[in-house]
Amino acid sequence: MGIMLLSSGIACAQTPASAPVGTLAGTPIVNTARLNYDLGSDARALDSNTVTLRVAERLDVRLVREGEGPVSVDAGLTIVPFLLTNADNGSEAFAITATLAAQAAPGGIVPVLAFDSDGDGHYDPAHDTALVGGTTPVLAPGATVRLFAVIAPGSVVAADSLVVTARAVSGSGTAGTPFDGKGDGGSDAVVGQTGAVASITVPLRTGNSGPVLIKSQSVANANGASGPATRGSIITYRLEARFPGGAHAAVIADRIPDGTRFVPGSLRVDDAVLTDGSDADPGSFDGRGIAVALGDVAAASSHTVQFNVQIQ
Amino acid sequence: MPARTLLAVVLAATALAAGTPALAKPAAASGPLEITSSMMIESRSAAADGTTRVSLVKPTRVAPGDRIIFVLAYHNVGTQPLSNVVLANPLPRAIAYRGVSPGSPAPEVSVDGQTYGALASLRVRALDGSTRAASPDDVTHVRWRIASPLAAGSQGQFAFQAVLK
């Protein structure tokens, strides 16, 4: 593009050229030949005419994702880092879009893009600035910057993916397409082999991978028939914990409601009776609530805890 | 003043006929041998007979990796034969030599501007004093020596291929 900026004015960490990008755009190629001859005994020398070509700016861009495989989307912000390289010989800015494929319709949820301004590889909202207007600053030839796509919690539906696309601001399209006067130093710009467009697709694994606790209850009156909850009624609580991705040192705990009394000996896990005391078995009641230690839980498993209270 | 203009034209025509280069072209003031340098690219077009025609054209733009054909044209516009004619082309920094162009006599090349010869005969000295065979990328100068004498009125051209680094 036709603007030159000093790298010190750019609010993002650029690494030096990672790959040779060839003669810089706008460089004049000046050629003059030299001639020597003898006319009789007179030795003469002269220069030819001088021809000058100005090197065009070629437009190429690369996007590389950092990391591989599906990205887990959980309750917090989901951060997908990637590297953008200005892969040819001119100073160039790039317009970037990030979309969730399943919500690509207008008005859908759009991930936020941010620079790794401090270059530490981790997203930090305090330091890493958002990409203004979806366009990078002007990047030096060969320079690489790290960006983050930041996905808000709750954005992702099942089987979604993140699509990030970068385009050279000066122009993109079929390789060889010229953009007169759009190159550095008034040179022409011309689309390179990449088409001056790059795209990455990152599969997203939806929130089902985290544990889920489902609580249900049933009420029986004093003589055992189901009915409205009244004094003396027994409430049976059922806590089903599902672990799609497994878990380490899992504990299911629940406090009994005010105005109820725990029914001694009613605690069960997966239909096995547990004693109320804090002892060898994993279950206990401490006077205010129950707790069942499940330990390490395999992926795609579920456990159900059940206990009774009586309304006072 | 039309009459005077006409006179000037007649004089110029006379000068050309007499082969006085100083009047024929200002650039030739330094001598009877003219040299014209140009940088060209190949343009390919489909000919009517189904073949591809390659012609040399002035480039509208060049980018790294593009092939550039350097053409040196000479013409002895004087009336006397010339001897020891040498056309040399120091390569611009951003240009890498690739080889002679089809149809042109092969040039002598140099990797230091001092010693010329066939590329295969040249060696490059590294900082540690060791040497290796020169490659096209090492070439810094290209030259042609024309067999003496170069008769009055003789002309021709040389060409080599290069790429923009």
Care to describe what's here?
The complex is a heterodimer of chains A (312) and B (165). With 312 residues, chain A is mainly β. Chain A has two domains: 150 residues, Immunoglobulins (Immunoglobulin-like, Sandwich); 102 residues, Immunoglobulin-like. Chain A has no helices and 22 strands. In chain A, β20 and β21 form a beta hairpin. Chain A is rod-shaped. Chain A starts with 27 loop residues before the first strand and ends with a strand. The N terminus of chain A is likely disordered. Chain B has 165 residues and is mainly β. Chain B folds into two domains: 30 residues, no CATH class; 133 residues, Immunoglobulin-like, CATH 2.60.40. In chain B, β7 and β8 form a beta hairpin. Chain B starts with a helix and ends with a strand. The N terminus of chain B is likely disordered. Chains A and B meet through β1 and β2 of A and β1, β3 and β4 of B. β1 of chain A pairs antiparallel with β4 of chain B.
Highest CATH level, the class of the largest domain in chain B: Mainly Beta
Into which percent range does the helicity of residues of chain B fall? 10-25%
Structural class of chain B: mainly beta
CA radius of gyration of chain B: 21 Å
Strand content of chain B: 35-45%
Which sequence of SSEs, written as H and E, runs from N to C of chain A?
Answer: EEEEEEEEEEEEEEEEEEEEEE
Provide mean pLDDT of chain A, rounded.
86
Q: What is the overall number of helices of chain A?
A: 0
